[in-house]
């Protein structure tokens, strides 16, 4: 009887979950199906230097923002996972703010800080570093909108690592840094990789914040927007299909790496 109830739960779970799977599959599948009917448009997109450059800008900027998020986010996530202190909830709330605010608002806020005469933009300008309407601006916008995904995921990963393992290593003479490097980090690596994947995926899809702070150089979402507003669905769909296909391949490869790391 108990086994039957458990099976019923599984049936209900997969039935309800497949609604979301179907929602995504039908939406994207329809776009691919329509593009197959206009295969020449996809060939044109693949061979268009402007399209390839825009996609490369998006991919490379997303990688840069993810690396920055990793460099600063992993230590922050470790600290939040291991320490209790006054004001911790405030810091966690600040980290999660980019998840809550409209992306266009984030873009306006970033522009106000990084523009020529902004709080950060002005001193950077004296050093010859330009953020607005430049490649670094794309990275900044992507970083602001994506780093919470990495920090939150990695923090939960560190929480799952048993502190007793760290204490044993410390009792055997290992330094705090060595314990983190050889015990904590490897055990939390699957979560770290998942957080990096989520952060990268969120970064490459960013549009509104990038639109405000760095319209140029043109990234893939901006180019798709331009094509759609100027020439309609027929002109924008091939680029969309190409971008989704590239991202899908990258996601599959990264997920496979993540599964292998969990098995180890």
Your description of this structure?
This protein has 264 residues and is mainly alpha-helical. It has a single domain (35-79, 100-263), classed as MetI-like (MetI-like fold), CATH 1.10.3720.10. It is 84% helix and 0% strand. It is built from twelve helices and no strands. It has helices at residues 2-37, 39-46, 49-82, 88-100, 103-114, 121-126, 135-160, 163-171, 176-204, 208-213, 220-231, 233-263. α8 (163-171) runs antiparallel to α9. The longest helix has 36 residues, at 2-37. It is globular, with a radius of gyration of 22 Å.
Task: Kindly summarize this structure in a few lines.
This protein has helices spanning 2-37, 39-46, 49-82, 88-100, 103-114, 121-126, 135-160, 163-171, 176-204, 208-213, 220-231, 233-263. The chain has 264 residues and is mainly α. Helix 3 runs antiparallel to helix 9 (176-204), helix 5 (103-114) crosses helix 7 (135-160) and helix 9 (176-204) runs antiparallel to helix 12.
Describe how the helices and strands are arranged.
Elements: H1 2-37, H2 39-46, H3 49-82, H4 88-100, H5 103-114, H6 121-126, H7 135-160, H8 163-171, H9 176-204, H10 208-213, H11 220-231, H12 233-263
Helix pairs in contact: 2-12, 3-7, 3-9, 3-11, 4-7, 5-7, 7-9, 8-9, 9-12, 11-12
Question: Key terms for this structure?
Answer:
MetI-like fold, 264 residues, globular, 84% helix
């Amino acid at each position: 009887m108990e086994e039957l109830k458990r099976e019923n739960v599984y049936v209900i779970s997969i039935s309800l979950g497949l609604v979301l799977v179907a929602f995504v599959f039908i939406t994207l599948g329809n776009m691919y199906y329509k593009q197959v009917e206009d295969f020449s448009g996809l060939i044109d997109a693949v061979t268009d230097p402007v399209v390839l450059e825009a996609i490369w800008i998006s991919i490379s900027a997303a990688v840069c923002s993810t690396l920055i998020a990793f460099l600063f986010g992993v230590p922050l996530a470790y600290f939040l996972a291991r320490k209790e202190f006054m004001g911790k909830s405030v810091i966690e709330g600040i980290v999660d703010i980019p998840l809550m605010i409209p992306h266009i608002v984030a873009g306006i806020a970033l522009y106000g800080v990084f523009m020529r005469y902004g709080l950060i933009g002005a001193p950077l300008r004296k050093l010859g570093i330009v953020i607005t309407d430049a490649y670094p601006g794309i990275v900044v916008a992507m970083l602001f909108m994506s780093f919470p995904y990495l920090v939150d995921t990695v923090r939960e990963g560190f929480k799952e690592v048993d502190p007793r393992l760290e204490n044993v290593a410390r009792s055997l003479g290992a330094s705090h840094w060595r314990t983190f490097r050889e015990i904590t980090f490897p055990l939390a690596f699957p979560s770290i990789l998942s957080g990096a994947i989520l952060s990268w995926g969120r970064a490459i899809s960013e549009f509104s914040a990038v639109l405000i702070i760095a319209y140029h150089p043109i990234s893939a979402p901006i180019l798709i927007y331009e094509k759609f507003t100027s020439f309609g669905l027929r002109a924008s769909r091939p680029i969309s299909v190409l971008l989704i296909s590239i991202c899908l391949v990258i996601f599959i490869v990264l997920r496979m790496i993540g599964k292998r790391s969990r098995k180890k």
